[in-house]
Amino acid sequence: MSVPCVAVERERGEAVRARLAEVDLLDGDHEIAVDDGTIYVPVTDPSAVPADLADRIVERDAAERDRPRTPADLLGYEPSLERLGDIVIVDEDDDERAREIADAVMASDLPCATVLNRASPIEGELRVREWDVLAGNGTETVHREYGHEFALDVAEVYFSPRLATERHRVIERVGPDERVVDMFAGVGPYAVPMAARGADVVACDLNEAAIAYLEENAERNGVADRVTAIAGDVRETTAAYADSADRLVMNLPHSADEFLETAVSLAGDDCVIHYYDIQHEDDPFGPGERAIRAAAGDEYEVVVETERVVRSYAPHEYNVCLDVRLTRS
Question: What are the TM regions of this chain, as residue ranges (predicted)?
């Protein structure tokens, strides 16, 4: 097919391509070609090409670019999708629209084994939800995150891929030989990478299914010797680790304050707490800091090292993290 191209010497090709990209003139449906020292860059509108390149416009046969078909290509609109391993998650109240999106996902080139729609909010102590299986036949998958693999079943455990960047931020602060307690560990997205950095991690969770997956994931990632998985309420199962932790992860943002007495009992002489909270935008960090200071009492000096908004949670509410250092007085 004959299309308008800007023809320039090969050595100028990248600079010209970049200029055309800046003004949104690249024709992404056709391939750039090189022939006998000349590069041919397809453009969408030859009349808008910069004046100093106007005399370089030629008509030339160009191969069509082999592009993956996306769900948006098939639907005619961009659906809201979330990837978790080979599961694609939609969030649609309209059943007909949800199934239309699922059909498009499965017909597209998007790697996918199952399409799920959220059928309930996150509920109960175990923070799980119900799902409608729109395509495929299961809710189990293997999610990959910053070089680690996590097997999980979304119908049995809580897991949010949206927190990957925040998890990575915290994990990168961990040094070898640290003693870490992950108080609400889930399937191990903090615990396993921390162990991979050389830490010894005690990982607790009330959800026995999550602990089973955590143990599998520790094996899967080669760190089973540095992860101790404990099923049960962290307030009742960790007395043997009192006064020992160099780092505590408290990712239970709706109710972490209820576990601060236990956190302080686990802290060693110098301990960093990663405390997650959900608070109103008017004072997103104050309630958490006050709760930590009250729990620490006179036993520890408390220094807030980082205040970080992780994401918006609801109108006027933020999911936040406080990195707080406790130093025994």
Answer: none
